[in-house]
Amino acid sequence: MTTPEIAPSILAADFLRLQEQVQAAERGGARRFQIDVMDGLFVPNISFGMPLVEAMRRATAGLLEAHLMIVQPDRYLEAFAQAGADLIIVHQEAVTHLDRAIQQIKQLGKRAGVALCPATPLRTLDEVIEDLDMLLVMTVNPGFGGQRFIPYTLRKIARARALLDERNPTCELEIDGGVDLATIGPAYAVGARVFVAGTSVFGHPQGADAAVAALMEAATV
Ligand code: DX5
What we know:
By secondary structure, the protein is α/β, with parallel strands linked by helices. The protein is built from 8 helices and 8 strands; from the N terminus they run βαβαβαβαββαβαβαα. Helix 1 runs parallel beside helix 8 (208-220). The longest helix has 15 residues, at 153-167. It is globular, with a radius of gyration of 16 Å. The structure holds D-xylitol-5-phosphate.
């Protein structure tokens, strides 16, 4: 049984207590964090950018994922790499030249991830699937935390697992959106192994440490 990994999404964190919450999540077992970058164009929300990646780099030695929910993310790959991101995720829907963007991320010495919105077919990645370090299957429509997990994405996760097992077994399969104690188990059962969670981590009444530990437990029950 592969240990599930929780990637707390700091979109849901209390920015006045960010380092404290990061440390709590790490006490609970988190070894990576996701930074949700939003531009108000690719998604209808604006969040934060490179300065927050720089701050997170000072707050943790954990793996930092920059999830670029922005148009033409290739304009900022070097900036997010320099800010401290270890893994840069671009949306297939937001990049004109996806192969070039993946190669650029790798030339910067970072791991390359591609995210798909719920309605975007896996086959759009058919030509580049072997080049990915991570495939992110969105389980909500990107732009906001606190949304409900979209049930049909479970079938897509299962197909993504089969695709990676056949074409790129070392590629991480991550999901993002509406991950909580009820949804993490079914998603793990169909092959997801990395789970972005914001509300269920930083909104937990007992704190981020209890939340991360409970999610890791619930994944494989
Ligand atoms: C959507 C965001 C959210 C966030 C996690 O664009 O990417 O999915 O990271 O949000 P929760 O865990 O609150 O659904």
